Amino acid sequence: MDVEFSEEQQEIRRALRDALDKQSDSPAVRAAMVTEHGFDPKVWRRLCGQTGLAGLGIPEEYGGVGLTFAEVVIALEEMGRTLFPSPFLASSVMAASAVLHSGDEAACAEILPGIAEGTTLATLALAEPGSRDVSEVSLTATATPSGEHRLDGVKTHVLDGVAADLVLVAARLDGQVALFAVAGDAAGLTRTQLPVLDQTRHQARLDFDNTPARLLGTPGADTAAVLERVRQLTEIAVAAESVGGAARCLDMTVEYSKIRVQFGRAIGSFQALKHRCADMYVQLETSRSALYYAAWAATEAEAAGLDVDPDAPGAGELPVMAPLAMTTATAAYRAIAEETIQLHGGVGFTWEHDAHLYLKRATTSALLFGDRTHQRERIAALAGI
């Protein structure tokens, strides 16, 4: 196993960091997060045009850059570092992965080029009230005599659900899990913005009432496997964002400790603060190690396809490593963000300082797939404990 990044990958990181430092500084983030959709479409299109951001993990045959999931993780780390408000997670990770793995070549050729350009904003609607697991999908799909399909039910906590031009929906068709594509302006679809703690990532409730939908792939075990793979990739994506955000919090704290003077000396010279910063660093590096191992496992699994040998090195570990990396990273992120606020003293508690934005992202990221108890039970079950 080699989890070292190549010079080309490091160059991708440097280029993205430079672009995001210019386009996603604190004033830009704060301005974007209070808009209707929670991000600046002009900035999103500009970055997509300059860096190919939206299509990093999409194959070249569908208009993407054709890189591996490792490069996607690098991009997510850098976006997490600046809290970049964008539809990348929903569109370029969740939705693109669902379409790509669906096995529906026509849908891939039709949908993925727009996602890769950043002109089509897509999302995946999986969670339902009281449930976020693939096995518990209950929204119903019905086939009409003409061969069309209609959806009825509710999806909730859909990332960028109001802004999306295209919604991919997990539903039950004749008792089997199936994947459908629904236009954002489809008849019978009602989209409601949800109040959220983290304003840099908008979520929505989607109500389907006899809503027309297009079936992707084949219903059944294959679609359930596709959605499980998408969930695993999303968990790693959230871990990457969390590592990037936690690293930024630590950097802010160390920098502040060098310039804040108390009792005639920089507070960073006090042993108690040194110990707390050291603890933050250990938590960060632990979560980063888990992330990179999971990213390597995902890259191996993507090369192997959905039918992965559970005993295969790396690839077979993905089902366990993905949620483990996410829970490790989000827990570390929240702890580090809380320490960042504490060690900044009074200024850390103010609206004007960015520390609270990172804490809010850390808190909500940890709950995207259910509470910690549920996540730990899932990891234990997957590990056979």
From TrEMBL:
Cofactor dependence: FAD
Glycoprotein is among the record's keywords: no
Enzyme Commission identifier(s): 1.-.-.-
Name of protein: Acyl-CoA dehydrogenase family protein
Record flagged with keyword Flavoprotein: yes
Enzyme category, top tier: oxidoreductase
Domain Acyl-CoA dehydrogenase/oxidase N-terminal positions: 6-118
Residue ranges of domain Acyl-CoA dehydrogenase/oxidase C-terminal in the record: 236-381
InterPro entries tied to this protein: Acyl-CoA_Oxase/DH_mid-dom_sf, AcylCo_DH-like_C, AcylCo_DH/oxidase_C, AcylCoA_DH/ox_N, AcylCoA_DH/ox_N_sf, AcylCoA_DH/oxidase_NM_dom_sf
Pfam families associated with the record: Acyl-CoA_dh_1 (PF00441), Acyl-CoA_dh_N (PF02771)
